[in-house]
Amino acid sequence: MALIASSIPALAAPVIPPDAWAAYRQSFLGEDGRIVDTGNGNISHSEGQGYGLLLAVLADDAANFDRIWSFTRTQLLVRDDGLAAWRWTPGQQPPVTDLNDASDGDILIAYALARGGALWQRPDLTEAAASLADSIGSRLLFINEDHTLLRPAVTGFDRGERADGPVVNLSYWVFEAFDDLAALAPNYDWKGAVDGGKALLASVLSDSSLPPEWLSVARIARPADGFPAEFGYNALRIPLYLLRAGDGDEAILRKMASAMTDPNGAVRIVDLATDTTREALTEPGYRIIPAAVACVLDEVPVPPDLRTYTSTLYYPSTLHLLTLAHLTEVHPECLR
Questions:
Q1: φ, ψ dihedrals at 179, nearest 5°
Q2: For the whole prediction, is pTM greater than 0.85?
Q3: CA-CA distance, 26 to 37, in Å (whole number)?
Q4: pLDDT digits over 74-84, tens only?
């Protein structure tokens, strides 16, 4: 495992201030290592555990990383294919209330393990990351119309499982993670998956101002059946993932940042059929995403009220810390 570990660069750490990380932990991290989704019935899920692990790396906090990893390993990595069950519900028996995986959670967990292994020189974490990366590559990447794409989950979205399958979710591409996944499990077409995701996003945005949450790619790309045709809570993190990867198309980033923001600076949940706003999200963790795009691309300072972390609900708080960590590490001028 030393060869794998040496090929993954350690993140500059810490890039999350101790007080911000302490506030996040107090709000969302249980004593058992469970990241609590306070906006979703206090459940936990593979996405949240992956985010928690990644934030612990960015805060250079090995002790709390191990606490989050212990819960993740014992409570969610219970499938027989090496992937993580996606939903864990307190008070239920068994607590895993949906055994299907979610590929964004799988990727976030593998990526955080790889980064933790590199930062703290922990072969045990690198080995776990490599095993999970191999499961992701073998079970979740697929070819569609000459492009490598990413399944949202092992079951439920393929051709033959749905009349409009395959169905994908563009927000599940955690673009910054794919180079590490390639180092961990080099036998899979990770570069093709990055290129396929970006090509699909560009194709969708050639016809629409924003991408839908769930996208059928059976023939022409269109909103998937049975889901609202909307730009929603999942999709709003796409610009953040492109920014954090450092290789997003500037035209796409500008188009999304502009279209997702209303005149008051709130982030829009958008009915794509009518281009009308269903919700206007004012939490700092949402508003900082288009603000970060504006700063990185056009040197527009991030508004002062977004530069300091304060906990709200789990999801916007997580996005807020991830955005602040990226700006601190790569674009500190945005926070001055």
A1: -65, -40
A2: yes
A3: 13
A4: 999 999 999 99
Residue 298 catalytic? no
Nearest to 72 by CA among 89, 91, 86: 86
278 CB-side CA count, 13 A: 12
Which residue do the tokens 């709003």 mark?
A: 236
How far apart are alpha carbons 192 and 25 in whole angstroms? 36
Alpha-carbon distance 190 to 194, whole Å? 6
Residue 47 designated active-site: yes
Tens digits of per-residue pLDDT, 49-65? Answer: 999 999 999 999 999 99
Tokens describing residue 3: 């060869």
Residues 6+ apart with CB under 8 A from 10: 115, 118, 119
CA distances 110 to 90, 137, 189, 253, 324, Å, are 24, 11, 16, 26, 22
Structure tokens belonging to residue 215: 């996208």
- Give the active site residue among 37, 47, 60, 61: 47
Q: Which of 60, 61, 101, 104 is catalytic?
A: 104
